[in-house]
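# step 3/5: fold
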Amino acid sequence: MSLHEWMLDGTLGLLVLILAVAVLHVRSLYISIVLFIAFGLLLALIWARLGAPDLALAEAAIGAGLTGTLLLAAYGRVSERRRKAEEPLDWHAGPALLLSLIIAVILMRAVWPLPDLDSALVPAVADQMAQSGVGHPVTAVLLSFRAWDTLLELLVLLLAFMAVRQLLPSLPRQPEAWPLLQAWSRLLAPLSVLIGGYLLWRGSADPGGAFQAGALLAAGAILLRLTGLLPALGWHHFWIRALILGGCMVFLAIGVAGYWLGTGFLGYADGWAGPLILLIEVFATLSIATTLTLLVIGETREVRE
């Protein structure tokens, strides 16, 4: 690694630490949210530097974009009295600082020798790649060897959406969109669909997959809705409920079918692993995209019915 790369990586690492501390201790809650969004974007850049474009895309779309939007929306509903009660930074939290330093030392001690260790999991995954039905080891682990994990991720996302739907108050009416923003939305939304479909298709052989594709589709739908080019979406629409629940239902149906056919729950019959994984990813993409979209731009009718 060259000196310029060392300087770039060191600067990124230092900036992400500074932003993390600032997010927790800055005086203004609004500035803290803005810094959190900047932290997510910087973290996405770090993932890209580590050679993980799929994680970088997910971090930029979810960690910075979606979460930042939800935090700004929550801040807009905080009462003026609560805003005025914001207190300055307390630098006397010695025990918490000491505990943080101890945890940091322990983590560094645990992570530092990892590059010199040989994991037995890598050759084990490589030996089973032919039976996995896909060509990328990460996809094989997530949807073949450890499909339970991915199923639980979809269930967690569904539960989070249901919780937000119950707790979110009525939404304010959105302002009129700028004509320039509408024009750009007509150009960017089809690109998000095109790139999302490509990430879904290439996920079996390269970095990508359902979560990254779903995040891009959600970004396009949110952009169209905020510019008034997409009609109101809500839980009361049957097709919305079908898309949100479809990912988990198809995943569970294929798992039960495998158990009934004797290959075990979430096990795939010989020769069917690839098509079934692709089917799961298609429905998971649509489910993730719809869920993330409604988390940001769900209508009042959606959260009150």
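# step 4/5: annotate
The chain has a mean pLDDT of 79.
# step 5/5: archive (pending)
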